[in-house]
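Quick one:
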Amino acid sequence: MTAQVDAEPLTAALAHSPTRGEVYERVAFTFCKAATLILLTQRFALPVASGAAAIFYVLADRHGKKDTRCVLRVSLLIAAFWGAVCLVSLYATLHSLWR
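Output:
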């Protein structure tokens, strides 16, 4: 009986593969979030987005999520990269404002 109960959620998960519409909607929603962030932060969009990415990758690592879907695969490596991007872009943005 237990084997049948354990197999049911797996079968249900396999039975529902996303339609093309659902796949496109996921991609569209990702761009929607990015566009909203850019709209709200405008010239500070890159420092805000990269800084948030760095912070959340560090938090994910600290809470046990060591791997990721990102190309670089290692959470802390990705956090270091986006942290550097944040600092460089923030410096460039603020430097252009002070000129």
